Amino acid sequence: MKEIVDVNTGEVEIRRVKFILRAMAIGSCIVVAAFDPKTQIAGMAHIMLPGCAPEKTAEKTKYAADGIEQMLTQMFESGCRIENTEVCLIGGGNVLQKEDDTICADNIKSVTEVLEEKLIPVKASLIGGYKRKSAFLDAETGNVSYSEGDDQEKWLWRSQCTVAVKQLLKGRL
User: Fold this and answer.
1) Is this structure's pTM higher than 0.90?
2) Domains located in the chain, CATH noted
3) What is the mean pLDDT of the chain?
4) Rg of the chain over all Cα atoms, to the nearest angstrom
């Protein structure tokens, strides 16, 4: 049985193998789910605000640049390699449906810019819209799933780790 680890707003969590990282009730936040299929190191950052944290801010990982940097640093210190890393994005929705709300677009832009600067491609994303979302990252397989509103959980990304295991089991490798 896999243990579920909740990743709340502004938090970063890193796990291996027998865990599922989960972020719930995602509105304008962006969840960055990262996985290295070779080392089975999984990371999740629940980003609340765009840009970098002001200097005297205690909760720096609420901000895109700081949260992603912290997650990647922890993953790399655990043995992850940047060239193996698969990243998926979930969130950035205008759940309050305010016409003048820019935080969603600002978060999306900030997170994608940080990943582009680090040369980390996004494999799959579910961003924008008007429904709250939840994100799930299986630290054993690297598979990412999500739910929107009260809908059932659906697959967003099946990791190369899962594809390789299936091929191995079928004798293709």
Assistant:
1) yes
2) 3-169 (3.30.1330.200)
3) 92
4) 16
